[in-house]
Amino acid sequence: MAGPADPSPERAAPPHRAGGGGAAAADLIVVGAGAAGLYAALCAAREGARVALVSARPLAETASYWAQGGLAAALAAEDSPERHLEDTVTAGRGLVRHSAAEVLCEQAPERFRDLEALGVRFDADRHGNLALGLEGGHAVRRVAHAGGSATGRRILRQLSAVAAGHPGIEVLEGRRAGALATEQGRCRGLLLDDGRAIDARAVLLATGGAAALWSRTTNPPGSFGSGLMLARAAGATLADLEFVQFHPTAVVGLPGREGFLISEAVRGEGATLHDARGERFVDELAPRDAVARAIFGVLASTGATAVHLDMRGVDPDRFPNVVAALREAGLDPAAERIPVAPASHYVMGGVATDLHGRADGVPGLYAVGECACTGLHGANRLASNSLSECFVYGRRAALAGLDELAATGPPAAAELPREPVAPAPSFQTRAAMWRHAGLERSAEGLRPLHEDPHPLARLVAACALSREETRGAHARAEFPESDAELDGRHTLVAPGEDRPRAIAWA
Ligand SMILES: Cc1cc2nc3c(=O)[nH]c(=O)nc-3n(C[C@H](O)[C@H](O)[C@H](O)COP(=O)(O)OP(=O)(O)OC[C@H]3O[C@@H](n4cnc5c(N)ncnc54)[C@H](O)[C@@H]3O)c2cc1C
């Protein structure tokens, strides 16, 4: 089987016939109001489409709102999309789907300018020029911030204000997608958790990631992969679920702040990592997998629960919300080192899509943002590429979704399934995932996860077990090296199947 096809090359967007014919209640349903969902909804509405935007949780509980670092785009004079691509491919450890990463790096600058046009104000230096930050794995300064480390919050507040005022967008807040409605294999709409059905030309999932399936996480509790399970139940293929990025520097041991993330950008500005003896032990600007694994190694060999981040030399005004949060928790980063350790942060895997966000296996269904897997991150996401992905692919999928034909008949009768398709994980599942599917995995630890009650936990374990090598974010104790035979081979789980297959994507 070939990977998800991408039959339609990038083209000038044709005029969209919003609302034309059929029984659709909306042209496009967008599920999720993080960066990907809000921006996709706006892109569709700006084309004249009627959009239903469904969001389970308030804005402040999306991962997008919590984003600190920024968004990566080749904006500096000495930078180029080619250099950005080179760094993305290097970080992805032989697994980046080149075509998908190329789209990201080429189109990120354009999306950045559109965000500015929508009213997002990015940080400038004292001469009024755009201030770009340096982060791990980037060869040049390439990361745009807003409000220092409040980037996600600033972007989301502005996008949600514009979306709320747009007459083409109906916001359904506090509503959860309970199931996707399909007819002869095509997605025709969805069912909300209150039993209401909405019919549309296309449904775009922007439901975020699944890092909260692990107990120690930087993510909001709602990030448990509900979109992945909805898509799978509708017949979509999932990909690369074994690749879960562990952020190296999440705060340890502070009640109420456990897992609070200290952005990579802080290390970009000179913060250093130290073991219990005060020695530095890693290049702080190496890609995330390397830094996280080095910390894991120190913790495993010493029995310590944390290493220490020294940010005393960093200007506190550059990271006002990080500094404020630490001070609130009783730590003064200007005077003392901060205890940190890795935490589950970002899932590279998701609903397998083509380069326009089309879900593999279900016409009319799209996935963008962290719930999608285009293959662009490979085995390890380059820092700050995910917000850029939300905007680049959010727009591409929204426009492609509007090209779907409107349904001609009445919506298919559909009912909510008796059992929730996408249940929240229990405390036990989350603890077991941290123990057995964490920074280092082994067959012995992963096998019992096959019996876990949570369906996504079982699939992650199956994918992690099937990949008998160490690559990027996925480390197997019994297979400490990468296997060259698996270069470019993604792990696909077809609907209804539990056994993943390793397949090369074009
Ligand atoms: C602390 C932190 C810092 C980060 N910093 C950066 C950074 O600096 N740069 C960067 O590029 N990336 C960063 N990331 C990653 C990045 O923020 C995320 O990958 C990205 O924001 C995901 O956006 P999204 O729109 O796909 O999902 P989210 O922002 O998570 O939004 C998901 C939405 O889907 C809704 N939803 C979920 N399930 C359902 C359902 N069944 N029905 C209805 N609604 C549903 C949720 O309520 C929410 O509205 C960070 C992540 C975290 C946690």
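^ flavin-adenine dinucleotide complex. Residues 297 and 303 are 10 Å apart (CA to CA). Residues 1-24 have pLDDT under 50 and may be disordered.
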